[in-house]
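Narrative summary of target 7.
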Amino acid sequence: MPVACSSALLYGIACRIAATSLAIAERSLTELSGLEYKPMRSLLAEGTDCRIHSEPASWKPWPQLRKRDSDIQLRMFIAHRVWIFLAIAGCLFLAIGNGGCQLMIPDSTEMTVSKSPLKPIVEPRDVIDIEVFFVDRHIGDPLIGDSLWSSLFPISSLENENRQRLTEDGFRCAMSPSRPPRSLQSLFALSNDQDPTRRVIPRRYTVPSGQETLLMISSPPNGTPVTLKHDSGTKQLELNDSHCLLRLSAKYVEEGWVNISLFPEIRHGANALRAIATNEDWQFREQQQSIPLYQHRLSADLNVGEVIILGLEPNAPDSLASRFFRADLSQGIERLILIRVLDTRQVKPVRETTGRSDGLL
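Modeled conformation, tokenized:
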């Protein structure tokens, strides 16, 4: 039932009830007062003057009505107050008329709202442009050694407990300002994309605010052992068809500032239909077995141009982090990850256009 019908429908019902109540009250009150009841139509047919006149000075309110023409005045008294009530009730019904249909129809649990044929307006979305550099060097190369790390700044937002856990498992992290130090600039200046021991591989990602993306770090050889630490102890695994990833999420904070959150993840084994937990429920996806390392999460607020650097602790050659940054020791290559915030911007929605049935636009 359209919403527009509710006010008129309820007001009509109210008028009907009030008219019936008026007739009953008129008959009852005249009988109680000992008067002869005559319908209003009969009085009009007899030529009786039924207009409401001003009160004489000696008149007193009901029920001490004067016997003379008390029949007409009593009916006018009742009609006057009933129609005042009717007017007030009509205003109330008009005020709450939008919900009236739901009150009159027991089966309706919610109001019927007309849908607009136009598509809803989609607001612009914040997106973050991120540049990731995969830096490969010989193991022990001084350009990725202590001279580099000593010129960087620690991530101040990292809790001590989390920092200690990352260090124990071989993860090394730091920050660089938007104007990088000379040691970091030298790392890029002395690179050679044709030489696998001196190459820098740039990748660019556009991440909507509040969402995440995956960074492929390495692919350890089959049979690579890995030790996972838990509160209850340690667990040994042998990796096959494995990939070491970084799960990166970016969130717009304010103009020029972005929150970057990272945690490592290992995927291994054959692809199979697996239950994946989401924010709302469980979904089934075909993928490898996933080992998310939530306890190694790190988060930092970066300004545009600032950089997060991830690498391997020099005193942890056989740690969990070595499966990410020294995946294949036979090649003797160590990897460094640099994540830089390029820009923050808004993406406006684009209206989708479709071709006509004849194939012409």
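Confidence is low (pLDDT under 50) at residues 52-68, 98-106, 356-361.
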